[in-house]
Design goal:
By secondary structure, this protein is an alpha/beta fold. It contains 7 helices and 7 strands; from the N terminus they run βββββαβαααβααα. It has helices spanning 74-83, 95-98, 104-112, 114-120, 135-150, 153-158, 165-176; strands spanning 17-23, 33-40, 48-52, 61-65, 68-72, 90-93, 123-127. It has a 7-stranded mixed beta sheet with strand order 5-4-2-1-6-3-7. A hairpin with a 2-residue loop joins strand 4 and strand 5.
């Protein structure tokens, strides 16, 4: 990885510009490599917005942006590692990287635009953290509830194994106790 620190090019605030992270493909253990591009904020964009919990705010993991690098939190690094495609790039707006955290003026402006940034994304990804024991049961319960009320046969088939309701409820409770649900934006 590069040791040169990434230099953010200023965004054009007068046209509501944002940066989008172009996450390069790779296997799970490959170093995180990406580019940042500037785009006007609009409602028919081709990026996904990532909603996640920062966790410890101390940047401790290095990622490559072009030929330079930037330090990110463990949580952001973990999310990118899990969300990266093996065979194609992925375009993601992630606040910790797409906003120049050293520029208070830019941070203030971008925070005011957060609702528009999320609304402008073609999809919002909610990263709750890596799987824990019971996570699959909790997701299975959510799928079962959705299938029951949605009446979509293909969804019912995707649930898989029969669900032990008490185990699933306990697993769902553990999922809902994660710090993500206490965030202001949620």
């Amino acid at each position: 990885m590069s040791t040169a620190q990434y230099k953010y090019r200023p965004i054009n605030q007068s046209v509501d510009e944002i940066r989008v992270l172009n996450l390069r493909p790779g296997s799970f253990d490959d170093p995180i490599s990406c580019d940042l591009t500037h785009h006007r904020l609009q409602h028919d964009s081709d990026y996904e917005a990532l909603s996640y919990c920062w966790g410890d705010p101390t940047p401790c993991r290095q990622i490559s942006i072009g030929t330079a690098s930037v330090m990110v939190t463990e949580s952001a690094h973990c999310a990118l590692r899990h969300l990266r495609f093996k065979d194609r790039p992925r375009r993601i707006w992630i606040d910790a990287i797409c906003i120049n955290q050293a520029d208070t003026n830019e941070k203030n402006h971008q925070v005011q635009q957060m609702a528009r940034i999320y609304k402008g994304a073609w999809r919002v990804l909610a990263w709750l953290g890596p799987a824990r024991p019971g996570s699959n049961k909790a997701i299975g319960l959510v799928k079962a509830v959705v299938a029951k009320y949605d009446r979509d046969p293909s969804m019912k088939e995707s649930i898989g194994e029969p669900i032990d309701v008490w185990q699933a409820v306990t697993a769902l409770a553990q999922l809902l106790e994660r710090p993500y649900w206490n965030r202001t934006w949620i």
